[in-house]
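--- STAGE predict ---
source: upstream dedup step, 1 unique chain passed
mode: sequence only
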Amino acid sequence: MANELTSEDIKTIQYSRRLRASLQQTASRLRGRCRVRTGLRDKLVEISTIGKRTLTKSTDGKGQTPDNANTFQKRWMYPEFYEDGYVHDKQFDLTSQLADQVFSETQDAMLAACERTIDDRMVNALLGDALVGAHGTDKLALPPSQIVAVDAQYEPLGKEETGIVTGLTFDKIRLAKRRLMKAEAMKRGDSAFLLVSVDQLMRMLGDEKASSEQYVAVKALIDGDLKTFMGFEWIVTEALPYDEESKVRTCVAYVKDALEFGFWEESRSEISKRADKKNCPQIFTSIALGGVRAEDKGVVAIKCYEEADVA
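--- STAGE serialize ---
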């Protein structure tokens, strides 16, 4: 019949089909923006920090050498395991190239998910409870002194809170930077980062207190022409926590040495056959990682008002 498709026609139609991956973040934006340890094996990894020391005035040239004890702060990080798997039906588009595309794109999507997981866990380590104590059994929240309130404004000698909630402002960034500098966490030449959401970066253009120079700088950040401003490397990420009830997004300012992160297993993707599934091929991807906030004074959470996305 004239309307019937030949085998060659069917092959042409099948070969013309193409897959595309969904729009997504495919690479970690925070990897390397911390102190990283790799090849870890222990279930708990100790992070020890020697405390500050003070000198005493010497009054005797031939006196005893002082022997003052060290103070140690212990924090701990442990691995969290994440995985994904896919078993491919051999009868699915067996005579076309689509099966190969499904396999390839699926594996790429899994590895992209690993990269996003790295960012999620780094943000969680910065803002979440830190494991402390002699054996890592206690938890320590980020102190209130390291949090810029949602209604904060920069008042060098007065009260910060105003009762008027705002998004990210230059005042809030100045407050965060002041806290890092007063704690000696942020010094010239140190690596410091400011994590912001897309909405908060866009809001900066409407900051009424912004000077013309600041406005131009924010526009350059949005356009990608500028990465460092006000002493921070700006990183745009949607991994920052959002409270739908209070409509508050938590941005973060921190220094590199304040975050310890480890990999027990880097992202790994394996292709094998499932004997229990008629030898169907499978993809299995996994990663083992964890982190901890090593220094509270090196991290500042910035609370920012943000309307929820409308679907």
